[in-house]
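Weekly structure sync, notes
Attendees: PL (lead), two postdocs, one rotation student
Agenda item 3: pending single-chain targets
PL asked that the sequence for the first pending target be pasted directly into the notes so everyone works from the same version. It is reproduced below exactly as submitted, 442 residues in total.
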Amino acid sequence: MIHMVAFGLSVLVLLWFIYSSTAGFMERQTDETINAEIQGLSEQYSQLGLTGLIRVIKTRVARDKAGQSVYLLTDWKFNPLAGNLSEWPKFRDTGSGWSDATLEDTENFEPRRVRMRYFLLPGNFHLVVGRDVSERVKVERLIIDALIWGLAFTVVLGGVGGVLTSRWMLKRIDVINRASREIMNGDLTQRIPQRGTSDEFDRLAENLNAMLDQIVRLMDGVKQVSNNIAHDLRGPLNRIRSGLEMSLLRAHTPEDYRAALEHTIGAIDNLLQTFNAILTIAQAESGARRQDFQDLDVSALAEDVAELYEPLAEEKGLTLAVVPAPGLTVPGNRHLLSQALANLLDNAVKYTPPGGTVTLSLAATPTGAEVAVADTGPGVPADRRDWVLERFTRLETSRNTPGSGLGLSLVAAVAGLHQASLRLEDNAPGLRVVLTFPTGRA
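Predicted structure, written out during the meeting:
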């Protein structure tokens, strides 16, 4: 209904403009013709007098075979002196001299619509000049009828268009509602169908489907994290409990109890590190640390982190090399970037066999600032490089080596926070992890 009313009103305004333009133009043209004739007859009266005016009127009446013009000149008693009217017409004086009247046509026996103007000449002579507007009135009626029918068709078509549009939109919306109800009932495999027209509804369905895919991925991630937490933390907690029970049964001296407590504290520290890593990943993925960004000298930062791992690398018989790029700066969070680099170096040192090499290199590339950590260890198979970025995932499924499987997950989260790309490449042999920070980013 709103569509029909709005459409009808707009067309009504347009039709009114068309009518006023056409009918108004014809009326103005008629009035201008009458005024021109009155002006001419007044000049003739001024130059030729009454006799000359009568002669001019008779001449004009004789020339007007179609009878389109109306003339009548009378004396002060309204007695006809010249013209094609037998008597003074009955019309109401509007004060301006203009009037519309209906005259009887004695030849065709049908009334004529006449537009006339009354004019008083010097000497108290009355002059009426008019034009037959019967044809104009017929044309105006035809225009009015056409406009009425046009408005009627417009209202009908507007109503039909509104109904069809509403039904089409409601049908598309109902498809979304049905899919939403099925999803709310627990069927997360449902997706909103698309027609392939790339219209607004298709784009809405595409965005909603992408949102649903992301929700499913997040839910699967929550399930996986929950299962991994239960698996990874149940063992350490059981070991802590068993160790405390054995200490109660076996310890007899303060030194025994102290050793048991120190072992327990170390195990608890490992658990706290796991929880801190989970919290850091959550903060990075939520963007909570973005307000702490500042311009960082990434070369100096990398050298500081590498300096911490040099003793560990030397102890294991590894060569730790740093290839700096002085003046290389990126906006970022110092703590998170340090932790990400530390995780990469920790993994590289941990999995590189003795005699191997770990390289931390920095470079300014056309795509941005590049930070890479390469090792000569066993590497990661190409089909599992995306998988190892997930939480609590390790290539060693037995989980006998130290670690929680959160190192690369934290690196991926930090990269996402800094809008940096993260790539795992083959170092032949070993693994090369590349972080590329885009240039021109605020």
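Discussion points:
- The mean pLDDT is 80.
- Helices lie at 2-63, 134-184, 200-250, 254-286, 298-316, 334-351, 407-417.
Action: rotation student to compare against the earlier draft before next sync.
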